[in-house]
Amino acid sequence: MPVTYLELENFKSYSGTQRIGPFFSFTCVVGPNGSGKSNLMDAISFILGVQSRDLRSSQMKDLIFRPPGSSTDDTLSAKASLVYVEPDEGGGDGEEEGGVMGENNDTQEEQREGRLSKKLPKGKTTIFSRIINTKGAGEYQINHKTVTFKQYESKLASIGGDVEAMARKSPKQLVEMFENISGSAELKEEYDAALKAKEEAEQATIFAFNKTKEHKSERRVLKEQKEEAEKFHELLEERTTLKTNYFLWLLFHIHSDVQQRETTRVELLDELEEHQKIVSEKEAVVKSAKKDASKARNVTSSKDKLRIKLEGDVSRLEPDVIASSEAIQALKKRVAADEKAVNRIKKEKDAHADKVAALQEEIEEYEAKESELQTEYDELKQSEDGVGALTEEQEVRYEEIRDAAAVASAAPRRELQSAVRALESARAKAAKVAEEKKDLMGRKEEAERSVNELKQRTEKLEKSLKETQASLTSSESELEALQNTASEYQTKRDALEAQLDKINNTLRQAKDDRRQGKEEERITNAIAALKRHFPGVKGRLVDLCRPSQNRYNLAVTVAAGKDMDAVVCDTKQTAFDCIKYLRDQRIGTATFLPLDSLQTPSPESTERIRAMAENDKRYRLAADVIRVNDEFRRAVLYAVGNTVVCDTLDVAREVCFSRNVNSNKEDRLKAVTLGGAVISKAGTMTGGVTKEDSNRAGRWSEQKLEELRNKKEALEVEKADLDSQVGRGSGGHTAKAEDLRNNIGSLRNKEQYIKSDLEYSMKRLTEQKSLSKSSKQMFSKLEKQEAQCEDAVQHATATVEQHRKKVRDVEEEHYGPFREETGIKDLRAYDEAIGKAREEFVKQRTQIREHMAKLTARLKYEDEKDFEDKLSKATKKKAQHESELESAEEAEKDLVAQVSEAQAKLADAEAELKTATEKEQEMEAVVREARSVLKEAEEDCSKVSKALTNEESDLARLRQKLHETLQKARVDEVDLPMTSDDDVEMDDVGEESQMSSTARSSKRRMSQHATQESSTAYSQRDNTVVAKDRRDAGKVDFSSMEDELRKSLSAAEEEKLKRKFESKISKLTAEIEGIAPNMKAAEAFDTMTERVKETMDGFNTTKEEGRKANDRFNKIRKARAHKFNTAFKQIDEALKIIYTDMTKSSKHPLGGNAYLSLDDSDEPYRGGMKFNAMPPMKRFRDMEQLSGGEKTIAALSLLFAIHSFRPAPFFIMDEVDAALDNVNVLKVCNYIRQRSSDFQCIVISLKDMFYERSESLVGICRDVSSSSSRTLTLDLTKFDKAKHKTDKRSTTDVVDESPEKPKRRKTAVGSVTE
Length: 1314
Hints:
The chain is of the alpha+beta class. α4 (171-182) crosses α26. The longest helix is centred in the first third of the chain and has 196 residues, at 188-383.
């Protein structure tokens, strides 16, 4: 008997200190309704740690017993203690007889302890106590020592658990309970940690795999680049060899031609010397004629200079006359404009006076409105009859008094609320008694109705047999159809899931669908590589922003242009690093936008344009229609600048060309329409949309994706409908099939139950008649209790009225003086009548005053304008321009006179010039005749000179060609074969000595020709460049040339061979340039090979760690599932046996069926658990659809089944027999008596059939004098011992005395109750 005694001190209805007990293995608590039985259960629950809110009280103070008239006594405290004894092994109950004990007092307690000490178990005693102090705070004690709640709860947990409301637990709650019972909950944290470690290991493995895959891909690319570089080197060597042969062939033939041309040139120089002597004689004659002609020209020139001077004077004066005339016209226009300005200022002055007058008039109008509003408010306050009126100061004071009254009445209001709660409690108690009375009447009527129904039941049994057979056939057919339907459902569901998977894959690849081009894919890969190598790279601008609405897609695309595809990075240095990386890797080109150095429009200009756009809703800033993070806002401003987006092209024209919007060149705007048209700052207009713009704008379009999403939703709805039609998937099919199988089994058993049901119906008829009789007796008792409750309600109502009066008195202390002062009798009526009107008055007055402030500011601005000063300045300006006009007209007259005089002098100079010109022409004729003779001599000389020049030109061309060939060989870095320096020097000396005399004579004979040759560097033998080229050509070793290349060829053959060389070189060059190798690929390939090896090692490591984590998780999962399933199987088997034992009878020999089922058999703790019970002769139903008695039997069966797996030291049950009939009560009693050696059971019961079979009784009654509960204890085991002794002495049959046993117990109980 673990629970031995209870000690209560002022707990609920138990006054003073009361010791209740001892409690035997099977103890019943009995007593009339309202005596305090439930309070005893509350005391046990309170000791076991249940919170006060679950004990029918709102706070712990409500658990303290308060004698009548001391409801406000704050000096009382309460205490509840439970004496728990852990029996020693081998210990047993004593055999001494007990007796009936009266009220608990000290003397009787000592006597009872003496008598019963041998009946109690021997072992370790633990006293659990909870105390409620005078302040309502709680305290926990173990063996009279104060402990924390955690220690207290830990100690309680060591002696057993708390199992309640078994039949009402949800599937998830049942699983949690089984986890605690089985011990699998101990592995929950370890399970979660292992699951997390497994998932992290899987993610690490995937990451390592992707990294390895990426490195292998890079290594494959580098391998291709390495092979390409090797091929590149081979082609370079082949091209170098071909170029060497080509340049050797060119230099060999050029050098041969130069030597041949040098010999021909010397011969032509000698012939030219003879012709030059003849030319010199003729030149002397021409020179004499030219002297005479020169004198004549000098005279003509002096006359012409005089004429030119006079013409200059005339020309100089004429522009002055024209300028003077234009100045006069301009001054006349200025005078006219000044006249208009003066008139305009006068008109503005007149209009200003009208505007000032209008503003003053409007100010006076609003002042009148304010005065009128004040008057209306005063009249409204006066118009309320019986309410009165307050001044503005009194209204402010009234608000303060109202707040003070609310503070002062806070305490009385709390007391009023407590009284109201007490009244509600009394009314609830009265309602409860009335409900019990009504329920009793219902049970009586139900009993009478049951009698009639049982009479009709016999007639229906035969009919029920036929219906059972028909239902059996129908259920079997339905089961077969259900199996076919399940197969069809699974097929349809698989098809829907396949379509959903396809759509999901499409949505995941939506970005890839938009990157259809190879170039776009290359750019995306390049940006991804940049992000990996440089953390400062943010991504493309098009990916970082999007228009606020779809209609702006095209406009934003056109406004940003190519910058929308630019890459955004944090700094300029990052941009340089990215460019270097792209160049080194030969990935491609890209534009970068470094955020730290972008030049954006000034905030002032942007805000000015935004302000204009807010006034005109037809356009807005492009930057304002783009959604982007503030981090990248600078890049967007750089891309679009102050570009505006207009609704139409007409609006764009107005914005760009309107004077009001763009008053100067710096304020011009760029405008873009929704259709893609552009007006630049320069005024050019561009219309139409290219396919590229449409595609770029379509990157933000999600229409296709939206259609896929809609289709996905439709498929999901179809799938949900399909699941709902068949009961939520395959689980629904399984449940229905299980239901049909259970139904078939039930129908097969129903036939044999029909006969036994008839006998049960007759017995039930007798019980219902007895119940009707007892209900009449209980009805009179409830009427008395109802009268008592009504008296308590009346008393509580009076208390509430008293507290309400206190609240009104406290408020009156504050409101009274104010009412006397103001003369207002009812302030609440004043609040209702005037409060809302005052709020409206203050609101309107504020609006009027704000508008008046605006008008006053505008009037002040108009007064500050000075039109007199502007008019004075305009008048002065007009007078000044008129004076300038008069001066200009006088100056024009003087200029006209000067022009006439200069024109007369010019006519005289022209006549003298004509005479001098005629004389000059005569002298020129003599010169022409001498020149004709000279020309013939020069022509002969020229022919020879021309031949020489051609030869020189050819020689120069060859030398130029030689120079260019050598220079090109140097530029192309062609390494030509060279001879030794000594051989070259000997060749140069021989050549120079052979031609030295010829060269010296040539220089003396052709000074003029030498002058001509000085302009061409390659025609001079002693030119440094020519000499260097000759030396370089002489150093070339032609011995390696092929004989075919040394042959002389015609021009066509030479050109053909040259094209052949060039063609081969061009093909090799094109092939080389098309390769574009990565010269560092070999080194990078070796590095990447090492990386691949490292990542493969890392991948293998993470893969092994993932396998270990998975093994550890599976081990913990299996251990946790094993613990849970072990408990589940044992409890399920025990449940079936116990429920069958508790429901079978002679009429139902097979009993009922109860079982537990799991949603997830592999990992049961992740799903739910269903508890189903099928009483005898009943079809399968959910637990919620069973009757109260059926639920009780099922819950007790589960409780006892759990006890078989995890025994508890004691059970405490409150009226578990309330919903049970006598048969089931007897079964429960017998089960408890049979198991009383395993656990202690304390039960509150009102049925004699139940408590007469207990080992002891605790009677609870009501002490009217103290309005508290009292307890009495009765040991029933002595009656069993007395009967046993009597049976030994008696010769009568045992069967004849058995009915007297409960009768004696009833007599004993009756004596105690009295």
